[in-house]
Every structure is written in C-alpha cells, then in structure tokens.
Design a protein that fits this description.
heterodimer; A: 167 residues; Jelly Rolls; 8 strands; 45% helix; B: alpha+beta; four-stranded antiparallel beta sheet; globular
Chain lengths: 167, 167
C-alpha cells in the first residue's frame, strides 16, 4: 500500500513558521495536509490532544471525511512543511487508494487505542479508573448514529429501498 | 455522493434468524457486511458489547481494513437482513465511494472517542486520571501504528503510571 506522502508527492508544499495556524477549530472542511517536516500541535476545545512530528502524518482528514467543521486547531510548533491536497473531498471521491489509505490509518488508531484500553483494564485499575476505561471503550465501539446519512446510503448503496425489496 | 447501484446486482442478501451468527471471533473471511434491517448483537466471550440496529451499519470493516481476524461474535437478535460484500479489501481499492463510506464510519467512531476524552480530561483536570487520559488520547491520535506501539510500550515501562490499590 503506497504511503500518503507517495500518494501526495505531486501536491504543492506549504511552509509554516513556528506559531502559524494551519487549521483553525470551527473552520469549514476543504484541504487535507500531510506533514513533510517539522512539528505540529493539535488542540481541541483548548485541550492539547496531540503532537505530530512524523513525516507522512495526515492532518485534517476527519473534517473532510465527516464533512463537518474542523474539530481542533493545528499549529506549527517549529518551522514546518506540509503537502496540501486542495478540495480533498473531491480528490477522495476520485481516488479509492487515497480513501482506503485514510480508512486504514483511522482504523489502526482505533485498534491501537482499543488494545491499550484492554491492556489497562488488565492492570488491576481502581473502580474509578475502570469506569473511565469502560466509558472510553464504549465510545470506541459505539455504532455511528446518523439516520439521515445512512438513510441515503441505504438507498444509494443498493439502488432500492428496503420497502421496494419487500414488495 | 455517487451512487453504488452497481453493487446491487453483485451482492447477495442473507436472512439471519435469531441466534444465527453473521461473523464469529477469529473469522478471516474478508467480507464486509451491511445491515439492511433487523437487530444484531455484538458479543465477546459471552459478554454483550453493543447492539446494532441502524440500517447501513457496517460489520467487519476493521477486520477488512487491518487484515486482522474478526474480534467479536456478531449474531442476529431478531430476524435480520444483511448484504455481504466478498473480498471487500479489493473492492475498496476499486470503489472510492465504498472506501469513503468505510473511512467515514471509522472517522465517526474516532471523533466520538476524541470528544469524550477531551470532556473527561476537563472533568479530571488536576487529578491523577488526567495522565491516563492524556496517554489514551496520544494512542488515539498516533500518526501511525508504529508510533502507537512505541507509545504503548513507553506507558508500561513507566513505573509511576498505575498507582496500586483503590483510588
């Protein structure tokens, strides 16, 4: 499977100075970024959630995939360079390899988190800690609830509604 | 979004009766299942993890994406109908629409979990749990499976991480 950097090697580079905001929380979906060099920090509702320093790391993918505003602010901690995939939703529509690679990355993150939570649960945590772990595990395994989205999918995916099929 | 009508002719419908297994823990079949109607229950070691009733819910997507065995039993709770896409990993490479649906499903779960972690982190500001939450957050936002694994190892090599005894 090609890496995202390979997939996006032809896209333009953008340079950031330390302190520059790459993505502002609440801004609309649009571009997708892949880190070439430097370090980025991610904060959601004022809570720092990640430091990104690995070349090839993707940024902004959640907003594009969920078609909703960015849920976090991404800022350059050092001078940094990113590849920019403009109008990423359209690009993903046209490129299954890219969409699949993104899905794989996200799945790997969920899987690693699940493994960590299960491992923590076996370390004899206190009741309060176990309660936290259980809540987080439940969130990870919650089926998506978006009736409208899936109503469309249900019709689209198979070209007929369940009602049609029954008839 | 583009239509997936072309799948309709190729994808068989299965009827499941209460108690029938859709997938079993350890399966490596590589099928991606879509719930059309009914109620499925997800169990691991006889413990119910969740129930699925939303039409369009995917089953098996983590296994397909990561190439790992199915991690839980999924069986019908009521009479249910599913469509099963065989060799789904190959299908995802060819079909951007399907790849995007799968990516969006995984992204939704990740987003829900991330939002919960931020809430919990604020609730527990200044308490011991914040350290644990921060590290779970790091796993969730790891930029690669390798980074997640390093983070997980660091965690368990840190003797101060898990205080013993009740909180």
């Amino acid at each position: 499977m090609p890496s995202l950097l390979t997939l996006l090697a032809a896209q333009p580079l953008r340079s950031l100075a330390a302190g520059d905001v790459l993505i502002a929380e609440g801004s609309p979906p649009g571009d997708l970024y892949v880190l070439e060099a430097g370090t980025l920090t991610v904060a959601r509702a004022g809570v720092g959630i990640a430091t990104i320093a690995q070349p090839g790391a993707v940024v902004g993918e959640m907003s594009v995939l969920l078609n909703k505003p960015h849920s976090a602010t991404v800022r350059a901690e050092t001078a940094a360079q990113v590849r920019v995939l403009t109008d990423a939703g359209r690009a993903l529509d046209a490129d299954p390899a890219l969409a699949k690679q993104l899905a794989l990355l996200l799945a790997a993150r969920l899987d690693a988190t699940t493994a960590l939570l299960v491992e923590l649960s076996t370390q004899n945590p206190g009741p309060a800690q176990q309660g936290l772990l259980d809540r987080i595990l439940a969130a990870i395994h919650l089926p998506p609830i978006d009736a409208d989205y899936f109503a469309v999918e249900r019709h689209d995916l198979f070209g007929q509604s369940a009602e049609d099929e029954r008839a | 979004m583009a239509s997936l009508v072309h799948l309709a002719a190729q994808v068989p419908t299965r009827i499941l009766h209460p108690g029938d297994l859709l997938v079993a823990e350890g399966d490596t079949g590589g099928d991606l299942h879509v719930l059309i109607e009914g109620v499925l229950v997800v169990e691991r070691d006889g413990v119910v993890l969740t129930t699925l009733s939303q039409p369009g819910t995917l089953v098996g997507e983590m296994s397909v994406l990561l190439g790992k065995p199915i991690s839980a039993d999924v069986k019908a709770q009521s009479v249910s109908r599913v469509r099963s896409i065989p060799n789904a990993a190959d299908e995802l490479k060819k079909d951007a629409e399907l790849a995007l649906r799968v990516a969006a499903t995984v992204a939704t779960r990740l987003d829900t979990t991330s939002a919960l972690l931020v809430d919990l982190s604020r609730e527990h500001a200044g308490h011991h749990e914040q350290g644990i939450l921060g590290r779970i957050m790091t796993a969730l936002h790891a930029t690669s499976p390798e980074a997640a694994e390093v983070q997980r190892r660091d965690l368990f090599n840190d003797p101060t991480f898990w205080p013993r005894g009740p909180m």
